[in-house]
What we know:
Largest sheet: 2 strands, antiparallel
Number of helices: 5
Order of helices and strands: EEHHHHH
CATH class of the domain at 70-169: Mainly Alpha
Shape: flat
Amino acid sequence: MTDMTEKKDLTPLPEGGEELFEVPELSTETGPSAEAPEVQSEPQEPVQEKPAEVPQVAPQLPVATLPPKDLLVKDIEEILSSDLTDMYLSLPDDRKAAFRAKGEEVAQTIHVMMIQGKMQVQKVLKLIIEWLQLIPGVNKFFLEQEAKIKTDTIMERFEQETHRVDNALV
């Protein structure tokens, strides 16, 4: 008699490839001489089932409990979004989400530059132009004019913020 663990056969796939798992060769012997695992017939005690484990997921915070945005970030977002309501509403839904996300990213980047005191007019202008270019069919001259106005307003706000901080330190 052969032991089931000694002989193993790799069964080929119909296309000619090999199986990724091993298939044991089964014995054809029957009767009492065939090796089979012994099964004991003991009365089994009822098994207490454990409740199914639920994977731990980070709790979702309700929108109301999220920390409020920094007032400076809100101001920057308001400056960026001023005079663009009609254009925003005319965008397709998929572009609205991308436009809004990019605008928030630009506002955060400008906010970080303000906090670090490293405002660069050309960098702010470039960020705003890249963001406004997401609007399809926008006139190049309008885009540059609008970006320049927004950059100037943001730079004024930066000056106000630095004077406010300087006065608070005195």
